[in-house]
Amino acid sequence: MKVGITDVAARAQVSEATVSRVINRRQGVSRKTREAVEEAMAALGYERVTQGQLVAVVTEFVSNPFFADVAERIESALAPHGLKTVLCPVFPGGVQELDFLTSLVDKGVAAVVFLSASNTVEGAETDGYELLRQRRVPYVGINGEFADGVPAPVFSTDDALAAELAVGHLHRLGHRRIGMASGPSGNRPADRRVRGFVEAMARRGIEEAERWVVRQSYSVEGGQAAASTLVGLGVTGIVAASDFMALGAIRGIRRQGLSVPDDVSVVGYDGSAVTEFTDPPLTTVRQPADRLALEVGRGVLALVSNREVPTGELLFDPELVIRASTAPVAKGSG
Question: Among 3, 21, 230, 283, which is least packed by CB within 10 angstroms?
């Protein structure tokens, strides 16, 4: 005999409307009541449309404060609706990611969030997405569209605008030889930031800016190596593709016997809270972690409740935060 919400409501001693709100992850239900309804569904064998209460957040950059902040904010957005997040640190697009996804769907997972994981990698395998589709587990991406032909909602910071804000700030300070410390080729956000950088420079009459782009890993060490190369090219300002790379760039500049910002100005990207307390405090382009996480939470809730969410990419505007790592270009430079 099939169990219905009437049976669940009777066992939990609540109204059918309350059971419906719990099933559909609506707000307005206390934690105690939600738990009573969940226990009644489990005891009666009520079959929920979605599996489990876990939402997997798959990411490579667990040590980066920005990604940790986004994951925490997603948790805060989903928790009132009875969903819990679990962080899955993986190498994006590789076997490890597929292994994680296989284990998650076997144990029951409500949804998956790809936080700058395989959705950012050109040529990444699509086996994981196909597995989720077959098992009817919804998924969304953050900061990177999925491979062609994989329809899913994506929530991203506008990388072209981020580059425009950084270049525009340095240009207004008189810098003309501006370099970029970027992430590796084939990483979608890195590629988009490079395109945005080159276009922003071209709009200011500075052509062939590609010669001032150095590709490296998204790390302090990558930023340091890129800065060493860029200083050798004579740049007076550096746009970094992450705050970690920016901090590495500052270290690299200092090891060349130069100072920040007197000799070389540096702009980061992400907007981690820690950048306010670095030496010097870092000028950065802040990603809107709060708005990104809120919309991701809304999208996940809609998907697990079998409501439609538009596929394709939704872009969010970043914000320039000016601090002490940038200054007017030194006289005689440019």
Answer: 3
C-beta separation of 182 from 193 below 8 A = yes
What's this model's pTM, rounded to 2 decimal places? 0.84
In whole angstroms, what is the distance from residue 304 CA to residue 55 CA?
10
Say how many C-beta atoms besides its own lie within 10 A of residue 156's C-beta.
22
User: Which three-class secondary structure string do you get for 199-253?
Assistant: HHHHHCCCCCHHHHEEECCCCHHHHHHHHHHHHHCCCCEEEECCHHHHHHHHHHH
CA-to-CA separations, 328 to 38, 169, 176, 264, in angstroms, rounded: 60, 10, 11, 10
The whole-angstrom separation of Cα 33 and Cα 274 is: 39
Length of the chain as a residue count? 334
Q: Indicate whether 314 pLDDT > 80.
A: yes
CB crowding 184-213: b at 16 or more within 10 Å, else e: eeebbbbbbbbebbbebbeeeebeebeebb
Question: Mind listing the pLDDT tens digit for each residue in 115-163?
Answer: 988 898 888 888 899 889 888 899 999 999 888 778 899 999 999 999 9
Could you identify the residue written with the tokens 């060490």?
A: 221
153 close to 309: Cβ distance less than 8 angstroms: yes
- Give dist(CA 88, CA 164) in Å, integer: 33
> Are 259 and 280 a contacting pair, CB within 8 Å?
no
Q: Residue 36 and residue 14: Cα distance in Å, rounded?
A: 9
- Our CA angle for 139, 272, 266, nearest 5°, is 120
Half-sphere exposure of residue 14, counting CA atoms within 13 Å on the CB side? 22
Q: Are 105 and 132 in contact (CB under 8 A)?
A: yes
Rg of the chain over all Cα atoms, to the nearest angstrom: 23
Average pLDDT over residues 213-226: 97
Q: Where are the alpha helices (DSSP H) in 79-143?
A: 95-107, 127-134
